[in-house]
Amino acid sequence: MGWKISLIIITNPSTISHKELLTGLGLKRFSETGSGSIEEASTISNKKTYIGDYKGQLVIHDWTIPEKIILQNNTPEEKFLASRFPNSEIAVMELVSTINFWGYKILKDGKVLRHRAGDADKGTYFDLGDPLEEEKPLLAQSYINEEGERMYRMEDMPGEEFNEDQVGENFVFEIGRRYLGRQLDMADDFLWETPLTEYSKKPWWKLA
Length: 208
Prior knowledge:
By secondary structure, the protein is α+β, with helices and mostly antiparallel strands. The protein has helices spanning 18-24, 38-41, 65-71, 76-84, 136-139, 164-180, 188-193; strands at residues 4-10, 30-36, 49-54, 57-61, 89-96, 101-108, 111-119, 123-128, 142-144, 150-152, 162-163, 196-201. It contains 7 helices and 12 strands. The strands form 2 sheets. The chain has a 9-stranded antiparallel beta sheet with strand order 2-12-3-4-1-5-6-7-8, sandwiched between helices. Strands 9-10-11 form a 3-stranded antiparallel beta sheet. Strand 5 and strand 6 (101-108) form a beta hairpin.
């Protein structure tokens, strides 16, 4: 199964209304249209924004905002989150494993703590900051080849080698452990049971 997910998780969040949050993230016209789970929100054709809470952490699922923050630096959305939640760790994660796109950016104290991303076409194009504890077991299974590329020999698949884009999914799963207490793909309660409020963009002719 190809994994598709696009998340922001904010630890120790200060109180904020959904309206203020959505407006700060650049969504100027929206309306509450229902509810759903992370699993339902992660359908890649889903153009809606979801907001909820998981064990005291603020959770946002959206298919535009996380990608923008990961692929660019100092976007208005990133600046808003860093300034609005100065005492939080902010994790931005996205995974579309059908094209081997993976990425995460983690902000702490208003600064980028870790930033990594890549895909099958371009390889790894962001790798900033010191490795996190959750990354180290995977990185320990890697080496740099003669072309300067990081390759992986996975313990559970001896005799095979993998490019970094082929294990990007594993890294995103492990980063999830930092906030969920277990790998993202194994956090069934998070994926299926986290209550999220659904918001849809309101067409300009329905502003009244």
